[in-house]
Write a structure and sequence with these properties.
By secondary structure, the protein is α/β, with parallel strands linked by helices. The chain has a single domain, classed as 3-Layer(aba) Sandwich (Rossmann fold), CATH 3.40.50. It contains 7 helices and 10 strands. A 10-stranded mixed beta sheet has the order 1-3-2-4-5-10-9-8-6-7, sandwiched between helices.
C-alpha cells in the first residue's frame, strides 16, 4: 500500500518502505511526519503474511517497527529483514529501526540482542551522548528527555557504532552506524497507540517496578509527555529524512 502527501515537491524521490510487524505497532506519528514532509511511503504488513521484497533499489529508505517477538526467534521473516538491513548498510540506503527494529539493526551489523531482567515500560528519561548533542545541535533538544518505552530485550552497539542516547534502566537507547539509525524508545507513539498497548499488552503490567510503570503512571500527564516527545521525534525524523532525500541510489 503506497501513500504520497505533502506540502513541497521532492521530485522523483523513491518511497520509504515501512515494515510493520504487528497490527497495533504501526508507524503512528512517523506517517504523519512523512506526509507533512511530502515523502511517499509504503507499508509491508508482516502480520498479514505479506511478502518481504528482496530488492531495495526501488526505495529511498527502510523503516523497521516494533514487535512482541524477539530478534533471536527462529522466524523466516526475521532472517529476511536482517539480510535486507545488511544489504542496505552495504549500499548506503538509509535505515531507521524503532525498538524491535533497532534490535534488528544491531543484530544485522554484528551486535547482540539479549533479554533484560525486567521489561522497561512507560515514560523514562533518556540522555543524549556528546555526539548526539552535536548531531541535533540546532533541533532544540535538551541534554535529556522523557521517552516512551515498551520492550523486554536490549541491544549492544555493533563495532563502529556511535552512541546517541542512553538511559537508566536500559543503557543503550540509540546509535548511529553509517546509514543505519537504531532507536530503543518509541518516538512514533501517539495517544491512541498508548491506550491500545495498555489494553492489548495489559499482561505485561502485573508487577510494576522502577523500570515498569503501571497504567496510572503512564497516563499521568500524557499530553505533556507526548507534546515534548513530538519535539524529539521531529528532530530525529528530520535528520533521518535529510539522509533519505540526499541518498543517490
Amino acid at each position: 500500500m503506497r501513500f504520497s502527501f505533502g506540502i513541497y515537491d521532492v521530485g522523483s524521490l523513491k518511497p520509504v518502505r515501512i515494515f510493520s510487524h504487528t497490527t497495533i505497532e504501526h508507524p503512528g506519528y512517523l506517517c504523519e511526519y512523512l506526509e507533512k514532509s511530502g515523502i511517499c511511503y509504503e507499508k509491508i504488513y508482516i502480520a498479514l503474511g505479506e511478502t518481504i521484497p528482496k530488492q531495495i533499489d526501488d526505495v529511498s529508505g527502510l523503516v523497521f517497527l516494533g514487535s512482541p517477538v524477539s530478534v533471536n526467534d527462529p522466524l523466516p521473516w526475521i532472517a529476511e529483514e536482517v539480510a535486507l538491513i545488511r544489504l542496505a548498510s552495504q549500499v548506503g540506503v538509509p535505515v531507521l529501526g524503532i525498538c524491535f527494529g533497532g534490535q534488528l539493526i544491531s543484530n544485522a551489523l554484528g551486535g547482540e540482542v539479549t533479554t533484560v531482567p525486567t521489561m522497561q515500560i512507560g515514560w523514562h528519561r533518556v540522555a543524549l551522548s556528546e555526539y548526539a548533542k552535536d548531531l541535533f545541535t540546532s533541533s532544540g533538544l535538551f541534554d535529556s528527555f522523557y521517552a516512551f518505552e515498551w520492550h523486554g530485550d536490549t541491544f549492544s552497539l555493533p563495532d563502529g557504532a556511535l552512541s546517541l542516547f542512553n538511559g537508566g534502566c536500559i543503557k543503550n537507547q540509540g546509535f548511529l552506524h553509517k546509514n543505519c539509525l537504531a532507536l530503543q524508545f518509541h518516538p512514533e507513539i501517539t495517544k491512541s497507540m498508548v491506550h491500545e498497548w495498555l489494553e492489548q499488552y495489559a499482561h505485561c503490567l502485573k508487577k510494576p517496578s522502577e523500570c515498569m510503570q503501571d497504567k496510572e503512571q503512564i497516563l499521568e500527564n500524557i499530553d505533556e509527555c507526548l507534546a515534548y516527545q513530538r519535539i524529539v521525534a521531529n528532530a530525529i525524523f528530520s535528520w533521518w529524512l535529510e539522509q533519505v532525500v540526499s541518498f543517490k541510489g
